[in-house]
Amino acid sequence: MLYQNSIEGIEPEMLVGFFDGWPTPPSPETHLKLLKNSSTVVLAIDKDTDRVVGFITAVSDGVLSAYIPFLEVLPEYKNRGIGKELVHRMMAELAEIYMIDLCCDDDLVPYYKRFGMIKANGMLLRNYEKQSGI
């Protein structure tokens, strides 16, 4: 597995299969735009297929705060330590930041606790009609 902190060399066709279960997922082109506009990105690339198989993103002010909106690994690549490696690499990238926040479903709380994160309350607003990014 190859890990990289940039989208250099990444094309939309390398981003197929993400956002599993979303009723209106972003297209690979929109996914690439999402990665490009993130403050920090770490990608997991299968060297044999030249395909992105996992990614994590952060948006940050670069001073005190960062938010991790996405961590995703393709279903056929799960349970191989890829997500764990992506989180470790992102935390290293954000090591100088005071607060690193993310929102997750209750069933993922134990997963993120393993990285030293604590459960907190949060509020959200979802505009599902905009889910595809278009």
Short recap of the structure:
InterPro entries: Acyl_CoA_acyltransferase, GNAT_dom, NSI-like. It contains three helices and five strands; from the N terminus they run E-H-E-E-E-H-E-H.
Mind explaining what this structure looks like?
β4 (65-73), α2 and β5 form a beta-alpha-beta unit. The protein has a single domain (2-121), classed as Aminopeptidase (3-Layer(aba) Sandwich). It has a five-stranded mixed beta sheet, sandwiched between helices. It starts with a strand and ends in a 21-residue tail after the last helix. It contains three helices and five strands; from the N terminus they run βαβββαβα. With 134 residues, it is of the alpha+beta class. It is globular. The mean pLDDT is 96. Helices cover 20% and strands 24% of the residues.
> What count of helical segments does DSSP give?
3
- Percentage of residues assigned to helices: 10-25%
Q: Indicate the mean pLDDT.
A: 96
What percentage of amino acids are in beta strands?
A: 15-25%
Question: Helix- and strand-based class?
Answer: alpha+beta
* DSSP, total strands: 5
Order of helices and strands: EHEEEHEH
CATH architecture heading: 3-Layer(aba) Sandwich
CATH level-4 homologous superfamily? Gcn5-related N-acetyltransferase (GNAT)
- What's the story with the biggest beta sheet? 5 strands, mixed
- The CATH topology is given as Aminopeptidase
